[in-house]
Each structure stands twice: as structure tokens, then as C-alpha cells.
Write a structure and sequence with these properties.
This protein is of the alpha+beta class and 217 residues long. It has one domain (2-80, 104-179): 2-Layer Sandwich (Alpha-Beta Plaits). It is built from 6 helices and 8 strands, in the order αααββββααββαββ. The strands form 2 sheets. Strands 1, 2, 3, 4, 5 and 6 form a 6-stranded mixed β-sheet that branches. The chain starts with a helix and ends in a 13-residue tail after the last strand.
């Protein structure tokens, strides 16, 4: 469930960042450079931090026309397809007690929407916050099954078909690899093999085509 996993990753990242002022300062440290401090500086970073920590920023599945849900992040599926180049032999991966069988590797594209209605600056701030989260929480994403992920972003726009007319948005296309599989033990236990054992220990009624059950039979 890649949408749910990505939603959780961003939620964890927001929570961790709100409790780590030093990390937040690092995101916007460029504002402290001599050639930028006159227009921005620490006071501007403090302003962003105060807004970020006092504003509820939900991470939603898909988008919302509800004006109370802005600013927000939205997540929805753009594309998912099985990656045949990563398929295991005959869709089987190993055999035996600890085997993972019936594997399915998919390439997934998810769109992350960054939405704000008060200022385009809020979209910019949230984009660089998201950028930080996607790098910082990479191991969280890997643990949730989002492997080998990358992303790219678009410019600002107004997506009136998705959001209210006064909402600015920026979209991030998130791509990852997801592996799905059935547990080998459960799969074998539920097979109807059609076997019977006589008193001499001889196997009777063995199916003529055993290849479908793997080489372990």
C-alpha cells in the first residue's frame, strides 16, 4: 500500500522536524549568508519555524476541496506497473521452509501535492521541508517498503480541478520500487497436494506434474 506508506513517512518526518529546531535551521541556513541576511536572516527563519510549528499541516490521501485542509500535503497514485525486469524465475523466489514465493516487484509513481492558500511562500517553505524529509527519513521509507525512491518537482500552479481556486500548488512526482510477496510457509500449508501415505511409508497418488510445487517435493 504505497500511498499509505508514503503518507506515514511524511507524517513521521513532520513530527520529527517540529521537535528538532537545529535540523530546521539547517534547512534554511542559506538565509544566513552575508549576501542574503539583509533580506532574510535569522528573523526570517524564526518566522518560518513559528508558522510551521503552530500550523496544522495534514497529509491527505488524494486532494480536498475543504478550505480547512489547507495548507496540506496530498498523496495519490499516478501510476503502478509490475516491473518485469525484476521478476524472479517463474515468479518464484527460492524454495523451502523460509522461502518467499510468488513475488511481484512493481514500479510505483505517486504525486505529492503541496498546497497553500495564503501565500506562495508557504508552498516554497513546505517544498523544502518535504525535500528534507524525503532525504532524512529514507530508512523509514525503506522499512515501509518504499525502495530505491527518487523524486522530481514542478513549478507553482493553480489546480482548480483539484483544489479551490485560491490555492497554490506544487507537485512532486515520487517514484519507488515496491516488492510484494506471499509467505512461503502459508502458501505451502494451504496447497491441496492430493498425497496419501500407506503403512509402508510409500507416497501414493503423487501428481504427475510436480514442477508447479517447486523442486523441494
Amino acid at each position: 500500500m504505497s500511498e499509505v506508506a508514503l503518507q506515514r513517512l511524511v507524517q513521521i518526518g513532520i513530527s520529527n522536524l517540529k521537535n528538532n529546531r537545529d535540523a530546521f535551521n539547517c534547512i534554511f541556513a542559506q538565509f544566513l549568508r552575508d549576501d542574503m541576511s539583509a533580506s532574510y536572516g535569522q528573523a526570517h527563519i524564526d518566522k518560518i519555524y513559528n508558522w510551521f510549528t503552530t500550523t496544522k499541516i495534514p497529509v491527505l490521501q488524494a486532494w480536498s476541496f475543504d478550505p480547512t485542509k489547507v495548507p496540506s500535503f496530498s498523496i495519490h497514485l499516478a501510476d503502478e506497473s509490475e516491473d518485469e525486469s525484476k521478476a524472479a524465475i517463474s515468479d518464484y523466489f527460492g524454495a523451502g521452509e523460509d522461502a518467499e514465493i510468488l513475488t511481484g516487484v512493481s514500479s510505483v509513481s505517486l504525486d505529492i501535492g503541496i498546497h497553500a492558500d495564503k501565500s506562495k511562500d508557504h508552498v516554497l517553505w513546505l517544498y523544502y521541508i518535504l525535500n528534507y524529509i524525503l532525504y532524512k527519513e529514507k530508512m523509514v521509507g525503506h522499512g515501509l517498503g518504499l525502495q530505491l525512491y527518487t523524486f522530481r518537482a514542478s513549478e507553482y500552479n493553480k489546480e482548480s480541478k483539484y483544489m479551490a481556486d485560491n490555492v497554490w500548488s506544487r507537485w512532486v512526482r515520487f517514484r519507488c520500487t515496491v516488492q510484494n510477496y506471499l509467505d512461503g510457509d502459508n502458501y505451502i500449508d494451504n496447497m491441496e497436494l492430493g498425497l496419501s501415505i500407506d503403512v509402508t511409508g510409500t507416497v501414493n497418488d503423487l501428481p504427475t506434474n510436480t514442477s508447479q510445487y517447486g523442486s523441494g517435493l
